[in-house]
Write a structure and sequence with these properties.
Elements: E1 7-11, E2 14-17, H1 20-25, H2 36-43, H3 48-57, H4 72-86, H5 90-102, E3 108-109, H6 113-116, E4 121-124, E5 130-132, H7 138-142, E6 153-154, H8 157-168, E7 172-173, E8 176-177, H9 181-187, E9 222-225, E10 230-235, E11 240-245, H10 258-281
Antiparallel strand pairs: 1-2, 3-6, 4-5, 7-8, 9-10, 10-11
Amino acid sequence: MYIPGFVYMIQSNRKSNIRIVNLLTHTSGIPSYAPETTIKKRYGTSNPIGFMNYIDSCKRDFEPGKSMEYSCLNFITLQHIIEKISGKSLRDFAKENIYDVLGMHHTDFNPGNEMLANCAPTSKLKNGSVLQGIVHDPLARQFNCGISGNAGLFSNASDIAILVAALQNGGEWNGHRILHPITVNQMRTVPDSLKAFGRTLGWDLSSRYSSCKGDSLSPNTYCHTGYTGTSIVIDPDNDISIILLTNRVHPFDKGSVVKLRAMVSNAVAASIKKENSAVCNI
């Protein structure tokens, strides 16, 4: 419907459509990543259209809906669809429909000088320079000009707290709405046909990547992690949100925060329960 010919070929005369729900839940069959060298040779750098052409034609790993593989290319494809429908870049669309509406003034792709000094440095490149205020992900940096569906958004805890509060409040914060409550509920729910994979629409409920939730929050807790060490955990039943902004990649891209994320979630959950228990005893 949005990208003609964007399908999975089962046989030469039989195909299976890749739907938006497959992109959102990482059940599309599109590979997890893309070879930088191949794309450079074929399309050069700073070429979002060429990059999307690669994704459109690359070999699929499995039939849509039959398995789950986290893929950066899924969300780059979703970016392309948003831009095609809206006629705006993902940066402008998100700013106008989310950040400006909610009052998130420290959130942007390709941050300008006002934000740059507060951006955490990430990896050191081969030439000795260190990335700061420039997206860490190579695909987003080299081919999507820093504005990419899979990576490149800079923010701080205060702004993310506003976004999370809106999600906890059915899509509205401080009198300003960005989503309908039904949409927010769908974001927390694994589609019936994809229950085995544990991914909701854009989030994670119970897949193998959801360990950042820890063990003590409610079964309806949903979450998402970021490659550089960030994570968001939202428990709608207990009204608990946990925002963790660590920096595991500086300077050699070798750190790990997998256990730390779960430990922080458990510590927060335990402290909240203890506080609630004390109130009940009184």
